[in-house]
């Protein structure tokens, strides 16, 4: 049995952290679903920046819209929705079979809105409506400004993937925003069955402390943070307040492990996948990690509900001078800044391609 299937055996969903038109056109995504038990996917501005900038697969769509005079951002969302609605249709049978627990794809609002709650909610409503697919999450960052947007979007009935979470505290803030939105729906007599996942970024923790801590601690910080967060997740699921919402028809917000590709070439290629097997969670991984996982036969033990040795490991990092609370805030801000940069790069790529594809002489010179 492939290791990819073993994740499902413990109740964890395996999603692909990538989307390109080539993946769709070549049948590769369909093959991943069939052969590697992939049951969903995620996207972000960096992924689309690479997909559109490094491929000619989008050129025909860009060329066909060249004379419509649409803003570059609008052109991007049309391209992204073309890809993601096709992907959503591939995953739709899984979504139906699991009653909406699995089979999702994700599209992020513009990262330029990260500090504007009102416009974030408006963009989330617009994009979800345009997609017209029940299994499409809208991604909203779990920044302090994003938290009220999460609550408002859930209250509006929009499925949300909360992104850019780096600590148990940030996760809890996002999870409580989700629950407030659900409780408001219950109080208003609305259907409380609005789906959501909360995405905790893992590997960036270890990248941030590389060369700054003793060698024996390498590759352990992200996993320890994830274990601490998983303990908080299980505590919330077991709390009377959450169970009251579930009793009214709500579904739990699932915890999702993001940034699970191994960045240290000396470490296992499935370091974070192997360490973070846990029921009722999602692991979204890059293609390289997915293909590496498919070659493995065995995996370690699932996470324990109490977080295992997380606090002992985190104490060692504190002794080594790592301020985890401060670093969590820095990583979230760096993540938001990185997505803004990727967004700006993406807008420039689409703008330059649009100009070039509308100029026959430019095309001859490429």
Structure description:
The chain is an alpha/beta fold. It is 55% helix and 11% strand. The protein has helices at 3-9, 21-25, 28-36, 45-53, 59-64, 72-97, 117-131, 146-155, 168-187, 203-209, 221-237, 240-247, 271-275, 287-294, 310-319, 324-357, 360-364, and strands at 12-16, 38-41, 105-108, 136-141, 160-165, 196-201, 254-258, 281-285. It has an eight-stranded parallel sheet with strand order 2-1-8-7-6-5-4-3. Strand 5, helix 9 (168-187) and strand 6 form a beta-alpha-beta unit. Helix 9 runs parallel beside helix 11. The chain is globular. The model is unreliable at 359-366 (pLDDT under 50).
- Give me the Rg, rounded: 20 Å
Through-space gap between termini: 47 Å
Q: Order of strands in the sheet with the most strands?
A: 2-1-8-7-6-5-4-3
Give a short account of the largest sheet. 8 strands, parallel
If you average the pLDDT, what whole number results?
A: 93
Our count of helices gives 17
Order of helices and strands: HEHHEHHHEHEHEHEHHHEHEHHHH
Shape: globular
**In percent terms, what proportion of residues is strand?**
5-15%
Q: By helix and strand content, what is the structural category?
A: alpha/beta
By DSSP, the count of extended strands is 8
Low-confidence stretches: 359-366
């Amino acid at each position: 049995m492939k290791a990819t299937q073993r994740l499902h055996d413990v109740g964890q969903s395996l999603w692909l952290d990538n989307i390109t038109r080539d993946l769709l056109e070549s049948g590769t995504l369909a093959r991943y679903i069939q052969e590697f038990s992939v049951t969903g996917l995620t996207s972000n501005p960096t992924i689309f920046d690479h997909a559109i900038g490094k491929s000619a697969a989008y050129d025909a769509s860009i060329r066909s819209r060249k004379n419509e005079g649409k803003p570059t951002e609008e052109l991007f969302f049309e391209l992204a929705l073309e890809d993601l609605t096709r992907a959503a249709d591939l995953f739709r049978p899984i979504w139906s079979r699991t009653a909406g627990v699995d089979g999702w794809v994700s599209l992020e609002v513009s990262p330029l809105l990260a500090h504007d709650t009102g416009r974030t909610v408006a963009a989330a409503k617009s994009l979800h409506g345009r997609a017209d697919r029940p299994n499409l999450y809208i991604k909203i960052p779990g920044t302090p400004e994003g938290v009220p947007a999460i609550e408002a979007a859930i209250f509006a009935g929009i499925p949300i993937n909360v992104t850019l979470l780096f600590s148990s505290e940030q996760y809890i803030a996002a999870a409580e925003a989700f629950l407030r939105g659900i409780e408001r729906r219950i109080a208003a007599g609305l259907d409380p069955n609005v789906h959501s996942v909360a995405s905790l970024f893992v590997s960036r923790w270890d990248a941030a402390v590389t060369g700054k801590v003793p060698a024996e601690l390498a590759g352990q910080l992200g996993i320890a943070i994830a274990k601490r967060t998983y303990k908080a997740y299980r505590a919330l699921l077991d709390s009377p307040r959450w169970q009251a919402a579930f009793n009214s028809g709500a579904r739990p917000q699932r915890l999702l492990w993001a940034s699970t590709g191994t960045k240290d070439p000396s470490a296992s290629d499935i370091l974070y996948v192997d360490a973070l097997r846990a029921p009722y969670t999602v692991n979204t991984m890059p293609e390289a990690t997915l293909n590496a996982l498919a070659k493995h036969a065995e995996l370690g033990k699932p996470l324990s509900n109490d977080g295992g040795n997380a606090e002992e490991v985190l104490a060692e990092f504190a002794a080594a001078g790592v301020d985890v609370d401060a670093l969590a805030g820095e990583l979230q801000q760096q993540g938001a800044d990185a997505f803004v940069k990727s967004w700006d790069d993406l807008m420039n790529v689409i703008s330059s391609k649009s100009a070039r594809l509308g100029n026959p002489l430019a095309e001859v010179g490429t």
